[in-house]
Amino acid sequence: MKFNDYNLHPQLQKGIEKAGLKKPTDIQFKVIPHILKGEDVLAVAQTGTGKTAAFAIPVLHQLHVQKQRSRRQDGVRCLVMVPTHELALQVAEVFDKLGKHTAVKTLALIGGVDQAPQIASLEKGVDVLVATPGRLFDLISQGHMRTSRIQMLILDEADHMLDLGFIHDIRDLQRKIPRNRQTMFFSATINGRIKKLAYNLVSKDAIRIQFSPKDPVSKNVDHFVSFVEMDDKRFFLERVIREHSNSKVLVFVRTKVRAERVAKAMERVNIESLTLHGDKDQKARNEVLNTFKRGHIQVLIATDISARGIDIPNVEYVVNYDLPDKAENYVHRVGRTGRAKNRGQAVSFCSPDEKDMLKEIEAFINKPIDRLEVDSLEYKNMRLMSDESGMTLKDMMKEIEEIEERDRKKRK
Ligand code: AMP
């Protein structure tokens, strides 16, 4: 199967080729024909599956063909709602790239930036609007954005939108846009709440695709696990941080108390970090996040709840200091790395008590996680090291290397 087989407009085909996409991914294969037919779609699909192009390609085709037929096409015709600024920019970029040679114009509408240029673009004519809820509603209420021409509504990462509390915004929007529209609903996970929202938005005949990919996590992420004792995890964390001193490291722990404790342990070995958990108010969390985003601090230690629903930028390294208590959360955690074309690494510290969860995670992501063997001598020495010694792991490793070097010389 090739993209050519869908009879897409040649101008779109050109964009697809230039973007280097040769064959549809599984999700694209499953949803593109339905979207082209104008059907509603409800798909469960994670990032990394090619889901963005799965909706962008058929939408671009339909809008471009419409524009070719009649030049008078004013007003936004496709609205893509996304939970975060980062995703809005990413999705708009995919539309721009694939639609480069078509007549379709895309705009990312996000808050936190001047709205005047956005209004100017809307006035000039935008076909596809990729928006986070806040700024969208501002512009609608100020009369800068007409919703009456919307023919297609796409909700991307709907589960994340619910986590962020956007449910009322989505409901409001539903009242503002034409009923007679095509709706495409994408979510990485599915549960009762998400289903309820989905069934409210899509038509009864929507095509449902429970896409359980062979690999639900991005292919750009390398996964590793180290088997360590619970009390030794901090030494391993110290090592990871020092070995990746040029990378942003996001560390997940199970509880807020542990977050603070790990931060203290790192402080003792002169590693600065910040924590993100439910005991901090929104303002404090934003401050922490901005410091981390700007790269003023290398290490962020977070709990699952606090990390879901906020826009953490792409990080190079995710450490599962504690394994999550639900396998599904593993996917959310590692989804913070390896975004777009970047490569990422995820390392999990698995204590003997956590081995069952590791099995569940491997079953959930449908692949074994590579074992990161720790040299037994190295580990033994690491365990011998106590906090009181005042030695950092780095010093200790150096010492071990020196001893080994001496031994080697002796043997010669
Ligand atoms: P997404 O799931 O939309 O975040 O896409 C994940 C990655 O897959 C992106 O880097 C895309 O450029 C890439 N991608 C999307 N469709 C294809 C395709 N048909 N062939 C190869 N790569 C693709």
Explain this structure.
The structure is a single chain. The protein is an alpha/beta fold and 412 residues long. It has 2 domains: 3-210, Rossmann fold (3-Layer(aba) Sandwich); 221-397, P-loop containing nucleotide triphosphate hydrolases (Rossmann fold, 3-Layer(aba) Sandwich). It has helices at residues 10-18, 26-36, 51-69, 85-98, 116-124, 133-141, 158-163, 167-176, 192-201, 233-243, 256-268, 282-293, 304-307, 327-334, 355-365, 376-384, 393-411, and strands at residues 41-44, 78-81, 106-109, 128-131, 152-155, 182-187, 207-210, 221-227, 249-253, 273-276, 299-303, 317-320, 344-350, 370-371. The strands form 2 sheets. It has a 7-stranded parallel sheet with strand order 3-4-2-5-6-1-7, sandwiched between helices. Strands 10-11-9-12-13-8-14 form a 7-stranded parallel sheet, sandwiched between helices. Helix 5 links the parallel strand 3 and strand 4. It starts with 9 loop residues before the first helix and ends with a helix. Bound molecules: adenosine monophosphate. The site of adenosine monophosphate (AMP) has 14 residues, from helix 3. Adenosine monophosphate binds next to helix 3.
